[in-house]
Amino acid sequence: MSTQSKNLTPTKDPSIDLDAEFQTSNIQEVLDKLDQELIGLIPVKTRIRETAALLLVDRVRKQLGLSAGAPSLHMCFTGNPGTGKTTVALRMAEILHRLGYVREGHLVSVTRDDLVGQYIGHTAPKTKEVIKKAMGGVLFIDEAYYLYKPENERDYGAESIEILLQTMENNREDLVVILAGYKDRMDKFFHSNPGMRSRIAHHIDFPDYGADELVAIAKLMLASQNYCFSEAGEEAFGKYIRLRMKSEHFANARSVRNALDRARLRQANRLFSGTKKSLSKIDLMTLEAEDILASRVFLENTVDSLPNTKKTNK
Amino acid sequence: MMTNSGNLLTQGQFSFLPPLTDKQISAQLKYALKNGWAIGIEYTDDPHPRNTYWEMFGNPMFDLKDPAGILMEINSCRKTFPNHYIRVTAFNSTRGVESPTMSYIVNRPKKEPGFGLVRHEGAGRSISYTIHSYATDKPEAERY
Fold first, then answer.
1. B64 to chain A: which residues are within 8 Å by CB?
2. What values do phi and psi take at B113, rounded to 5?
């Protein structure tokens, strides 16, 4: 095998059907699921597709004796809150498992607390334990920039980063590290840890969702909970989302989930206090416009616009 | 229990076989992990069969999925104690079992002097027998 890879004369090798290889890996199933369950996120999906293609081609190459060493697959996900970083990380673990890049395909999700110790000598064993748990799968470090606190030079975060770097380099085939966080803070983090930046090959940026995408996400979320919008309800939710997007602390899909939870609350209350005592299955499933229009977001907006109306009145 | 013809210590599983390769160790670890057993790495330089409690190297490892992490620990233990006995134990915490279910040596000293038979004359003409490891004549940490 090694002699073959050294003289790369294109001998007549048995050709390999890439399509058949693709079929057997079941990767299409995962990618389809990704397409269905994740709305938008085009750059992310493209990158995942590329990664999948690379791993597949790599596997085929290996069959022909063209080994190239395991590609480094450590990743960094940047994006605003609620843009699906954790969800994609979970999917990533599954995809990498299907392609045989990681052996187990589980996801270990940690934050600073799980990695950094509280006293001298506490950090290394703690970080190592987490790494050992993640071996054979994906280690997902949420809000990774908290690991490094430049304002405190006695902070133990740096020690943890050092151990991580070492494992990322030496145990490349054992585990994949995915860092996640807000874009600007991650940039700062990488700026102060150039070693980390250079060891991460894939930087994927998660864009914010548009209003229509958020409505589509809401419908998906409801479907998974056996709820649905009435027609008026969907329209009202579209209006709600447009208002909510402008307000503070908007966290994309997470805000949608919270809004839906509150809407379910109101729906339950409406059904309970309503006069209609015999409820059909449809009644129990449907979120009406009034469940959404009762939201505080609409109230606040009217408060804001009150001075305007007064002016026009005068 | 005692030394065999090859003069190798035979304690635990697989001890009459040639030393396990890393790949074989991984396979055994995988079996233990599949059963949900916690894995510990222990070392000693006192190979007496009654020496049940060896020193632990690091903490016992719970909830792992993949043997790679344990192999990493084994290798770092081998690096720290290249001339000690190192064994891997798998602990089954199931209620009612609560004891090690696997134990095998993964590292041994280059030269194992073995055991001698010690005769102790008691009252009358009675003699009691015991074994004594030649290695333990020397103080701890200088034995191998």
1. 132-133, 135
2. -70, -20
What pTM does this model have?
A: 0.79
B99-115 confidence digits (pLDDT tens)? 999 999 999 998 888 88
Class of residue A153 by CB neighbours under 10 A (exposed 0-12, middle 13-18, buried 19+): exposed
Q: Is the CB of residue B73 less than 8 Å away from at least one CB of chain A?
A: yes
The percent of residues in chain A predicted with pLDDT above 70, rounded, is 90
What CA–CA distance (Å, rounded) separates A193 from A93?
Answer: 25
Enumerate the β-bridge partners of residue B42: B56, B87
Give the whole-angstrom CA distance, residue A181 versus residue A143: 4
Q: Measured between CB atoms, which of A125, A129, A136 is closest to B66?
A: A136
- Cα-Cα-Cα-Cα dihedral of A105, A106, A110, A115, to 10°? -80
* Mean pLDDT in residue range A143-158: 87
* A170 burial type by CB count under 10 A (0-12 exposed, 13-18 middle, 19+ buried): exposed
Token couple for A259: 């809004």
The Cα–Cα gap between A160 and A162 comes to 5
- Closest among A189, A181, A26 to A99, alpha carbons compared: A26
What tens digit of pLDDT does each residue of A232-250 get?
999 999 988 888 888 878 8
The tens digit of pLDDT for each residue in A247-296 reads 878 888 889 999 999 999 998 888 888 777 778 888 888 888 888 888 88
Q: Count A/B contacts: CB-CB distance under 8 Å.
A: 37
In 10 A of CB A137, how many CB atoms?
22
